[in-house]
Write a structure and sequence with these properties.
It comes from Tagetes erecta. This protein is α/β, with parallel strands linked by helices. It is 44% helix and 14% strand.
Length: 460
């Protein structure tokens, strides 16, 4: 056995230090610096690391710089702008009339209850998450009287908000579903393509938005899904389509459902805005419940970022509706195998807030009132912007602003007009003309209306 020293005279120093009681700590440290090695390992230990370099160049000097995220990059640019009149309409988060982030009163009450409960601990959650949370989340989206709930046909796992729920579902499908192609609407949330592609699925699109009418292209939608292969996965926005704010009518949803079921396709709902669109939790879940009622399989990704304002808590769930309870149990067992090496188990705090609110009748009622107030304020902002543009006689038909629903409006502005508004009016939005209505206030509507009017009349 050999010992490799870090300094040639270290053993001599150790002898000297032993005589000095004040420096005994250094003696202990020196012994820990000795590396016991076998003769045949010596060369390996002292060899340069495989990642070391003889040159002065950093290891990752040639790593290309990634572009800013097209959505989050808007906020980055906004923060760099020193102008006091700047306006950020890119962020997908609710703001008060004063332009401030909002923590719901019911959330503060729930958190206080959790803090006051001395029996609570910070132990790991099970892989599938907090039991109360998953049970109540399934009931919220499917309805307490859903046949899927009553028949134990649904398995629900807690995930990292909507993004994590989509990714877990995509990973499961890539491993266990015979079709590897998912059809997503054009346009859709920018992260959808990345999530499904990185999970191993092939992403294709179907027509959704009609830029002429600034509404739903139901004809193109049905044609594209009609020509898709049987069994393909279809991503659907449960309500408040992002980025357009255009939702199918109930009759159009029924047309979509019949087509999807006739081709044995698999619907995958992204429900990020339940209750936040219309102000009604039940109304915003009608599309999902329509599909679940026919007894077929269905995937639903839920997020509590918007409707409870829990953006930073990353609270969400994935529910998979199956045809039998046995299959649901098997699916859950495989979801555990997806989650365990991905993030092991989910965080406890946000899920505890949600379950505290959902299982308490008074807190739940207070939440629905606050939720409706947020939805109503957004609807009011739509009306004010529409009225302001009409008062300015801005060219074009702007009725789509009050016809669309939810947090976002697809204005119809082109990239040049968006750039003009950012440059001249310091208004920040995504380049496709999407604006967050939740970022507007009665004070800022006139400024936005002036900018839109100037852009439309001076920039082609």
């Amino acid at each position: 056995m050999l010992y490799l020293f870090f300094a040639s005279d270290e053993s001599e120093n150790v002898k000297k230090m032993k005589s000095c009681s004040a420096d005994r700590r250094l003696s202990v440290i020196s012994h820990h610096l000795l590396l016991p090695i076998n003769d045949d390992e010596a060369a390996i230990i002292i060899s340069p690391s495989p990642t070391s370099s003889s040159s002065s160049d950093p290891l990752f000097a040639n790593t290309p710089r990634a572009p800013e995220d097209p959505i989050l990059g808007v906020t980055v640019a906004y923060n760099k702008d020193p102008t006091p009149v700047k306006l950020n309409l890119g962020v997908g988060a609710y703001r008060t009339e004063e332009g401030k982030p909002l923590v719901l009163n019911v959330v503060r009450k729930a958190e206080q209850l959790l803090v006051n409960d001395r029996s609570r601990v910070k132990e790991y959650l099970p892989i599938v998450g907090l039991a109360d949370f998953t049970k109540l989340s399934a009931k919220l989206i499917l309805g307490a009287d859903s046949p899927a709930i009553l028949g134990n046909l649904v398995t629900t796992v807690q995930c990292l908000s909507g993004t994590g729920s989509l990714r877990v579902g995509a990973e499961f499908l890539a491993r266990h579903y015979y079709q590897r192609t998912i059809y997503i609407p054009n346009p859709t949330w920018g992260n959808h393509t990345k999530i499904f592609t990185l999970a191993g699925l092939t992403v294709k699109t179907y027509r959704y938005y009609d830029p002429v009418t600034r509404g739903l292209n139901i004809k193109g939608l049905l044609e594209d899904l009609g020509s898709a292969p049987s069994g393909a996965i279809v991503l659907l926005h449960a309500c408040a389509h992002n980025p357009t704010g255009v939702d199918p009518t109930l009759e159009q949803w029924e047309q979509i459902r019949r087509l999807i079921r006739s081709k044995t396709m698999l619907p995958f709902f992204d429900s990020a805005y339940q209750g936040f669109a219309s102000g009604s939790l039940d109304e915003d879940a009608r599309s999902v419940r329509l599909f679940v009622a026919d007894g077929g399989e269905c995937f639903i990704a839920q997020s509590y970022a918007k409707n409870m304002g829990l953006y930073g808590e990353r609270v969400g769930s994935l529910s998979i509706v199956c045809r039998t309870a046995d299959v649901a149990s098997r699916v859950e067992s495989q979801l555990k195998l997806v989650i365990r090496p991905m993030y092991s188990n989910p965080p406890i705090h946000g899920a505890s807030i949600v379950s505290t609110i959902l299982k308490d009748r008074n807190l739940y009622q207070e939440w629905t009132l606050e939720l409706k107030a947020m939805a109503d304020r957004i609807i009011t902002m739509r009306k004010q912007l529409f009225d302001a543009l009409r008062a300015r006689e801005t060219p074009g038909d702007w009725s789509h602003i009050i016809k669309q629903i939810g947090m976002f409006t697809f204005t119809g502005l082109n990239t040049k007009q968006v750039a003009f508004m950012t440059r001249e009016y310091h208004i920040y939005m995504t380049s496709d003309g999407r604006i967050s209505m939740a970022g507007l206030s009665s004070r800022t509507v006139p400024h936005l209306a002036d900018a839109i009017h100037a852009a439309v009349t001076s920039v082609v």
